[in-house]
Amino acid sequence: MTAPSPLWSTLTQPLIRQNPVTLQILGICSALAVTTQLPTALTMAGSLTIVLALSAGIISLIRRHIPDAIRLIVQIVIVASLVIVIDQLLQAYLFEISQSLSVFVSLITTNCLVLGRTESFARHNPPLPSMIDALGNGLGYSLVLIAIGAVRELFGAGTLLGYQVLPLAEQGGWFTPLALMMLAPSAFFLLGGLVWAIRTVRPEQAEPPEFAAPQIPEGME
Amino acid sequence: MSLWDLFLSAAFVENLPLTLFLGLCTFLALSKRPETAVGLGIAMIAVMGVTVPLNQLVYSALLAPGALAWAGYPEIDLSYLALLAFIGVIAAVVQLLEMLLDRFLPGVHAAFGVFLPLLTVQCAILAGSLFMVERSYTLTEGLVFGLGGGTGFALAVTMLSAIRARLAYADLPAGLRGLGITFILAGLMSLGFSSFAQMAAQ
């Protein structure tokens, strides 16, 4: 057995162990708003992964030519241009989904995940590792988005990708949709539960307590 | 819809972090202590109150379909450039605000601390301008919407930080500590705020 190559671990690290959403608190803004249904979640995940990989590649290519003082502006302009292209493509080919995503595609521009990865990785690394790192982070983000989107659509409407999976009570089946799943709070609860689950399986991710109880020496009550 | 209704709906019914999930990164990261949360909230109100009306002017004078009619180009539609223009305006306003405050009100500048530059890449602020275009607000409506959205964010982040400050002494399961419990708290607050939507519907 050979040791996994560094590129492979760059790709797989962010999937669960270093997941951008549940561990690094990056890119949550859009992660929750678009997850009421699986199709919107999938579109969003795809768009973000593409923007992330391309912007990391471009910024990494010109990393030696960007003056430090204006690097944020340069990065934002590159990301914004890519987002405009994606937005126009979605409006042209997936009009209905792009209507229900509303402003959230444009908001990829300010997604902390994109700037976070370009700032911390693409600025110091050659294009290939940067794009792979971006791809891994995009996939980690997509994983969370798809998981939450699937749960919310399944229990909120009894469907997956628009197909009826659980027979609804009003159509003679047994399943009564949970209206809460369609509302904002459920996304918070689900993500909170997901974070809890991941950190229970991987205790090394848990945050240290802010305050420790004072130690009472032996023999003193 | 009267302006007061617009303000209330921007602040409560469409609360930026709790109902629309916007600006969550700063909402979660900077709500550990009430002092920082209040500073962030005030900075949000100031920046949103300035950028939304300013972007409304930029959009209606330069970018909207047919807006360049005054320059003799009535058929040009630059609305796809809105995103770039808005980001530029927001970055410039934040920078300008920081320089002005540093020069004339150093006390306030110290209170804002590091939050002002962060706000350039805050999704809630950009979203304010994008919603303004989507719903075609006028200049006054934009101003009220910006102030209302900022106020709603400030309220929510202050409340969350107060709850988190009390929970610092609680004995939570290890996996729930920090981020996990914050999501649950935000969910409960969001449940409370969703009742405002019921009130607005009546």
UniProtKB/TrEMBL annotation, chain A:
Keyword 4Fe-4S in record: no
Any Pfam family the entry gives: Rnf-Nqr
Keywords recorded for this protein, A-Z: Cell inner membrane, Cell membrane, Ion transport, Membrane, NAD, Nitrogen fixation, Sodium, Sodium transport, Translocase, Transmembrane, Transmembrane helix, Transport, Ubiquinone
Chemical reaction(s) catalysed: a ubiquinone + n Na(+)(in) + NADH + H(+) = a ubiquinol + n Na(+)(out) + NAD(+)
Compartments in which it is found: Cell membrane; Endomembrane system
Enzyme class: translocase
HAMAP family hit by this protein: NqrD (MF_00428)
Similarity-based family: Belongs to the NqrDE/RnfAE family.
Function field: NQR complex catalyzes the reduction of ubiquinone-1 to ubiquinol by two successive reactions, coupled with the transport of Na(+) ions from the cytoplasm to the periplasm. NqrA to NqrE are probably involved in the second step, the conversion of ubisemiquinone to ubiquinol.
Subunit description: Composed of six subunits; NqrA, NqrB, NqrC, NqrD, NqrE and NqrF.
Name of the protein: Na(+)-translocating NADH-quinone reductase subunit D
Record organism: Pseudooceanicola antarcticus
Taxonomic lineage of the native organism: Bacteria, Pseudomonadati, Pseudomonadota, Alphaproteobacteria, Rhodobacterales
Automatic annotation (TrEMBL), chain B:
Primary site of residence: membrane
Keyword Ion transport: yes
Highest taxon above the source species: Bacteria
InterPro entries: NqrDE/RnfAE, NqrDE/RnfAE_oxidrdctase, NqrE
GO molecular function: oxidoreductase activity, acting on NAD(P)H, quinone or similar compound as acceptor
A Pfam family recorded for this sequence: Rnf-Nqr
A Gene Ontology biological process term: respiratory electron transport chain
Coiled coil: none
Recorded topology in the membrane: Multi-pass membrane protein
Keywords, alphabetical: Cell inner membrane, Cell membrane, Ion transport, Membrane, NAD, Nitrogen fixation, Sodium, Sodium transport, Translocase, Transmembrane, Transmembrane helix, Transport, Ubiquinone
Transmembrane segments: 6-30, 37-58, 78-97, 109-131, 143-163, 175-197
GO CC annotation: endomembrane system; Gram-negative-bacterium-type cell wall; plasma membrane
Location(s), subcellular: Endomembrane system
NCBIfam families (alphabetical): nqrE (TIGR01940)
PANTHER family linked: INTEGRAL MEMBRANE PROTEIN OF SOXR-REDUCING COMPLEX, NA(+)-TRANSLOCATING NADH-QUINONE REDUCTASE SUBUNIT E
The name this protein goes by in its record: NADH:ubiquinone reductase (Na(+)-transporting) subunit E
Upper taxonomic lineage: Bacteria, Pseudomonadati, Pseudomonadota, Alphaproteobacteria, Rhodobacterales
